[in-house]
Amino acid sequence: MAFPYPIIALEEHFWAEAAIEFYTAKSKQDPYKTTALLRRCRDELLDVGESRLKLMQESGVTVQVLSHAASFLALDAGTCQKVNDEAAKAAARNPKHFAGFATIPMQDQKAACDELRRCVTELKFVGALIDNTCEGRFYDDPLFWPFFETAQELDVPVYLHPSYNEQTKPLLYDGNYPDAIAQTLSMHAWGWHVENGGHILRLFASGFFDRFPRLKLILGHMGEMLPYQLDRIIRITEHQWPMAGVKPERGLKRVWDENIWITTSGMFALAPMATLLKQCKPDRIMMSIDYPFARHEWGLQFLKDLQQSGMVSESTLEDIAYRNAERLLKIKV
Q: What pLDDT does residue 69 have?
């Protein structure tokens, strides 16, 4: 059965030549050479041409929003500019099939604001994708807030993506099993998602969303665990946090409904989707593959399964496949 709608995929990664040069200059190993999984994905990360387009066509993906893969090191301003220029060139070669999320030097806030502005106004990028932490620091620190103020001003979304955090692995995930297992537990098997979802709660507790009430944040992986805990967390924030002096102007449920969008990236099962549909407004759910760490055909089969499940109407299915992304990113398939 052919899928009847176009697909916009929002979290589709590449690894830039400029990043390779950056790691070499720092005498650090390229992170996409470190493990068998990452080495397997390396060739696909480096390709933003015909091979990628062929895979997209075979699986019905009309548009990929190119986003730079997570980095072990915070890329400096010059490297981020080169990364973004590489993505812009790929999009210019195939404007009907590629858009871009900006890569941002979060450790340098003036450069971060300048680069976001350049990417949106000159390169016509549709937002930014940033690592979950910057050199181990979270963004509830007001040091990082000028960037988000710029994103709100430009009215473009910021995709908060899981990233490497070497500080948490030995404490929480090393155990009586091979180190390769500890690595996966600390990353894509569990830890990344818990930490990324927790980051949203840190931002909420800090008053971040009162400061930036119009900011648009995107979370991948069906909400990074938050939808399954959301009711409990809302109750705690409403009844316990005020006793500690934390009472944001808008409650967590309102922030969830007004400031957060969710993609499916790498999560292609109906059970978590059922929870997401209960917890999110249907216009806040968007399709993503998480290529090349997840495969195009998995995403396509998921949409077909969702259609056959009867969990959503055809109109909602079409929204998830591409129309919600069109509205948020201001693009057209």
A: 95
What is the C-alpha to C-alpha distance for residues 280 and 266, in angstroms, rounded to an integer?
18
Buried residues in 12-28 as b, exposed as e (16+ CB within 10 A): bbbbbebbeebbeeeee
Q: What CATH number should be reported for the domain whose range is 7-329?
A: 3.20.20.140
Report the interhelical angle of 77-93 vs 17-25 (nearest 10°): 160
Residues 6+ apart with CB under 8 A from 89: none
pTM: 0.96
Residue 293, pLDDT score: 93
Contact at 8 Å (CB) between 151 and 117? no
- The domain locations on the chain are 7-329
How is the beta sheet containing 158-161 ordered, strand by strand? 7-14, 61-68, 98-102, 127-131, 158-161, 217-219, 260-263, 285-286
Distance CA 239, CA 255 (A): 17
Residue that wins the pLDDT comparison between 169 and 116: 116
Looking at every residue in the chain, the average pLDDT score rounds to: 95
Three-state secondary structure call for residue 9? strand
The pLDDT value recorded for residue 1 is 63
Q: Are strands 158-161 and 127-131 parallel, antiparallel or unpaired?
A: parallel
Say which range, 36-50, 82-96, 153-167, 191-205, has the weakest mean pLDDT. 36-50
